[in-house]
Specification:
Helix content: 40-55%
Oligomer: single chain
Largest sheet: 6 strands, parallel
Structural class: alpha/beta
Shape: globular
Number of domains: 1
Bound molecules: fe (ii) ion
CATH architecture: Alpha-Beta Barrel
Order of helices and strands: EHEEHEEEHEHEHHEHH
Strand order of the largest sheet: 3-5-6-7-8-9
Radius of gyration: 17 Å
CATH topology: TIM Barrel
Number of strands: 9
CATH class: Alpha Beta
Distance between the termini: 20 Å
Strand content: 5-15%
Number of helices: 8
Length: 236
């Protein structure tokens, strides 16, 4: 299984504080059948220097390379990039893509999802050649204009990621049920930050999802496997 959303790199963002914490998160992943993980530390484009971020990320990845090898989990380097107006025209963000063309994009903090936002997301795909994976879509279900995201998922302009913890929480939103019943969810991620407070709960999340739709669950797991293969051959 591939975990496409994680904050396992030590001391890069509000995720793992140190390598010991990374080791605990990797052990949770291993126990839940994860064989590959994309590290997606937060990148805030308006408050950070891209070169500094990439250097910090590379150093942290080197620090945990041995831990990953020991746990048999293949590490890929990505980022969880916070949306800003005009991101679709920013050549720089290509450097945050993983597998040469995927980017985890979060929309938190937006007052409204309007045409400008959806145009930007489409521009990432069609102007910059980056496939945006929208992080934890469940969190935007109550945003004004949320429904404008749906055509993006239907057309494949963007891919939809839901956090595993959502499926085991008591928050039931009709919006996510609709995504699942229409099989518009491409990936499930742990979005783990800490082995205690925000741990890896992919196993429980997947079981809960399977009870809603076995078919959507199979698709999600297969998408993860396919992406893992793609990322591995990209890195060769
Ligand atoms: Fe995250």
């Amino acid at each position: 299984m591939l975990d496409i959303h994680s904050h396992i790199l030590p001391a890069v963002d509000d995720g793992a504080r140190n390598a010991e914490e990374t080791a605990r998160l990797l052990s949770q992943m291993k126990n839940q059948g994860v064989t590959a993980v994309v590290a997606t530390p937060h990148f805030y484009p308006l408050g950070s220097v891209l070169d500094d971020f990439l250097e910090l990320r590379a150093t942290a990845a080197k620090e945990i390379a041995e831990l990953c090898r020991e746990s048999g989990i293949t590490l890929f380097l990505g980022a969880e990039v916070l949306y800003y107006g005009g991101i679709g025209n920013s050549e720089d963000v290509k450097r945050l893509a993983f597998g040469g063309k995927y980017m985890l994009l979060e929309l938190l903090g937006l007052k409204k999802i309007d045409d400008k936002v959806t145009r930007d997301i489409s521009a990432l795909k069609y102007d910059l050649g980056i496939t945006p994976i929208i992080a934890h879509v469940e969190r935007y279900a109550r945003y004004s204009g949320y429904k404008k995201l749906l055509p993006l998922f239907e057309n494949g302009d963007a891919l939809c990621q839901i956090n595993a913890s959502f499926f085991t929480s008591k928050h039931e939103t009709r919006a996510v049920k609709k995504l699942v019943s229409r099989e518009l969810v491409s990936f499930i991620g742990s979005d783990c930050h800490s082995s205690v407070n925000r741990p890896v709960t992919l196993d429980k999340g997947i079981s809960a999802l399977r009870a809603i739709s076995a078919r959507q669950t199979r698709i999600i797991i297969q998408n993860g496997e396919n992406l893992k293969e793609e990322l591995m051959s990209f890195e060769k």
